[in-house]
Amino acid sequence: MPIFYDEKTPQPFNDPTVLYDLSDYPEDEDVRKGAAKTGHVYMDAMGFGMGSCCLQITFQAKNISEARTLYDQLCPLGPIMLALSAASPIFKGYLTDIDCRWNVISAAVDDRTEEERGLKPLSEDKYLIPKSRYDSVSTYISQDPGFRQEYNDVNIHQNPILKQKLLDGGMDEMLARHFAHLFIRDPLVVFSESVKNFNINENDNFENIQSTNWQHMRFKPPPSSEDTIGWRVEFRSMEVQLTDFENAAFSIFIVLLTRTILSYGLNFYIPISKVTENMETAHRRNAVLCEKFYFRKHVFPHRYSSRNGKGVLNPTHDQSASNTPKFPEPGPVEDEYCLMTISEIMNGQSSPNGFPGLISLIESYLNSVNVDVETRCELARYLDLIKKRSNGTWETAATWIRNFVRKHPKYEKDSKVNSEINYDLIKAAENLGNSDGKGTDLRKGLFEQRQL
């Protein structure tokens, strides 16, 4: 990962922890062939990625159709929530120039061969695979009326034999495409008993591939035909926070957003290639305030008009209208989205016809359901965190960690986080977690407000 260049960081920076003369294993030659890049922190073990923490939420849908809808509509939100929850600026004892863990894990578990990565012509392998098995989603799967084929604008490789079997068995094209793409990967582990004693009512072999495709969304079928667990969707991009209250706020925000999406039939589709671009943007230092992200401009179906003055969506008065969402006749896909700041996405744009903001949409949904006053006040505190995190009133955990290091008396402005700084940082984080930030400089307003 790129080093964060501070005042006294050596330029060029060459990771001093790399043992260039080591020759115990064949892989040790990699560093002499350019694996350890100038200006980067070199991490050569899976633990650097899978040792990272995250905040993942799984929703159970009422049926497969609803699960597919949630999968697609939450997909464009993945990069936004990654940047908003950024909490990972330090790796291998150095301040890096990123704020998030995602790409570190992606590289740490990237098992593609040189042929699959396109570094050599295909000979032994079958597919050229553009992404690691831990990466952003590459295809939408829902049959929503708001979907357009142009949104699946990435040419993905698929397992043709598997896809044909799925189609022959009655699966539709979009879902078959999704699973056929997952199954271009090799299994990481194979259990002999699962192969020898194959049971059509069990899905161990399926999960062997499904659960090792770590995309930022996961579509999860029921565990088995006899299980009461239904169709689920997992939202996987967010970083774990330093306090329980923050983790609760992010979790509740996503839950409320799913209810709002389903209630209003919202459409967040943008081309999948733009979601991939957004994932890269989300990693940049302080992306929550300094970067813009592709996001859909108009998300309402026709049965709703614009917001009224109180932030409530107005249903149209056509009594004959169906409850099925109706969308305008499509124009160029490029006209459907634009670059927005995260504050605009969350809090809304100031222009009269601008995007109203996700928080406003959630509040409109809450106004339409029976929520008691006490619960509504508690939800308001959680939403207030999201609002103020997105507009910069309260900093991200990544910014707090970076500032803590740079202000530490033992920091030598050389990007290095020594053991003493590391110890003090861990103790400060522990204090935050145990006391929800009381008596600290981290987001004082948040914790003072909770005492009201």
UniProtKB/TrEMBL annotation:
InterPro entries, per the entry: GCS (IPR004308), Gln_synth/guanido_kin_cat_dom (IPR014746)
Annotated organism of origin: Dactylellina haptotyla (strain CBS 200.50)
EC class (word): ligase
Entry keyword set: ATP-binding, Glutathione biosynthesis, Ligase, Nucleotide-binding
Disordered, as annotated region: 309-331
A GO molecular-function descriptor: ATP binding
Gene Ontology terms describing biological process: glutathione biosynthetic process
Protein name: Glutamate--cysteine ligase
GO CC terms: glutamate-cysteine ligase complex
Catalytic reactions of this protein: L-cysteine + L-glutamate + ATP = gamma-L-glutamyl-L-cysteine + ADP + phosphate + H(+)
Gene3D superfamilies: 1.10.8.960, 3.30.590.50
Entry-linked Pfam families: GCS
Pathway: Sulfur metabolism; glutathione biosynthesis; glutathione from L-cysteine and L-glutamate: step 1/2
EC number of the protein: 6.3.2.2
Family named by the database record: Belongs to the glutamate--cysteine ligase type 3 family.
Bias kind Polar residues: ranges: 316-325
